[in-house]
């Protein structure tokens, strides 16, 4: 069975884009990621976007761009058996600190549930599942080295055992993110197969470098 | 390739080992007790399932104390070439608490990848490892991934380790969500009012059947099927339609190649919250139709052990399969109307050749179902 990469969405400090379609937007001076809410990256309004923590925001933007790149329409009203596995270098550490400091500052009596729910490393994926209507397997995974490669192996298992129709896999940090859409069929429109993607991910761990490598691959294929 | 469990062990609020936990739940006795390791007067509950003798905010985290006790007993059981999947939600979050409360240590010491390295060192495995975290389905999801690696021939030996501790961090969080019962949790009871937080650590060594035979290992049971899903509905509340858990259960049955008729009992997530238990019962009715079969929860006994819950419950369900007896639902006094005919405060016999279904659910709408043979 061939597993294909159908789309890749990405964001960095410098801009955002999609690999297969070639969409690339560089932020203008001082514009930055703060301008993203005005960019209509989501196909429908994101409910309560303001309560999301930094990694959740980057995750859902990257997923939206990856889905767009793969040509997949989505809606919370029409849920799909698509799974998501994500990773990040620090898990939920920043949200953990934010939650617990807030609790201590409040006199160790009241804590905020809205902060607590983002103290799970899988919470950004849960936010994505709700907005995009993803019914498939959802989990956070991380290794000591090259977590992105490891989660691609995990996605391979899920696709091989036919646990979901499609899988999203990626990495999100506070200022950058990269998500792939993976499919069990090799379509003509696919960017590459998983073996090629895996070898690139194995050789590069920096998100910007990965974007460069996949862009080169896309240009070569064309 | 079949994935079989060849060794397992747990530490729970009942004490060290599977026997202590099994005897506790079979006796319908709760190990949930008053919390003494931090002040609870500001919270919804004063109760939790804690393991006596652990030192809170000491040099070693709660989970590493549990794991050290667990692997002390696993002498020679774990092959060096096993791959490791470590399942947890908050790992060594007590280090972060200490750094913020007392200004001692580094909050980053609570990062899950650091815990992963400690568990690799503790177990001595050289096959590489990963953290798997999916809220309160973490260890069930990890067991499923281990079985998938074996079924696909990508591994022949995977060590699944699970752990989570009762800390002020998580206690305050569950309290803020108004998710806790004032008294020890009463899953599936008419008067249930929430969960009790609990702590535990567990491991299961999962092998291909071929390797287990080759090494003359005792096979404790088979992980025959699994299903993972998400509700895509709400971050903390379960779906009112139960469609996510129904999907996970149907995937698990399909993965095992069995029909619902072959399932003899269900080890439910059964947290004791009004909404979770109702969601599960709706799912059971949808999948098993009018066939009422024994359902139980052990969370009245040990509390909700979060990331460890799935693996602890899988291990106890395997024991139930071997013994041919389903435990009572601990703390059940009067079953909810929806639960009548399914749950019991008494032990029930399991029919021969029956399979077990273990269900779990968690924040972000995650669901898992495991089929055990």
What would you say this structure looks like, in words?
The complex is a heterodimer of chains A (222) and B (373). Chain A has 222 residues and is α+β, with helices and mostly antiparallel strands. Chain A has a single domain, classed as Peroxisomal Thiolase, Chain A, domain 1. Chain A has helices at residues 54-70, 93-105, 113-116, 123-132, 147-160, 194-203, 207-221, and strands at 4-11, 15-18, 24-26, 82-87, 138-143, 166-172, 177-183, 192-193. In chain A, strands 1, 2, 3, 4, 5, 6, 7 and 8 form an 8-stranded mixed beta sheet that branches. In chain A, helix 1 (54-70) crosses helix 4 (123-132) and helix 5 (147-160) packs antiparallel against helix 6. Chain B has 373 residues and is an alpha/beta fold. In chain B, helix 2 (62-72) runs parallel beside helix 4 (112-123), helix 5 crosses helix 11 and helix 8 crosses helix 9 (274-288). The longest helix of chain B is centred in the last third of the chain and has 15 residues, at 274-288. At the A-B interface, helix 2, helix 4, strand 5 and helix 5 of A face helix 3, helix 4, strand 6, helix 5 and helix 6 of B. Strand 5 of chain A pairs antiparallel with strand 6 (129-133) of chain B.
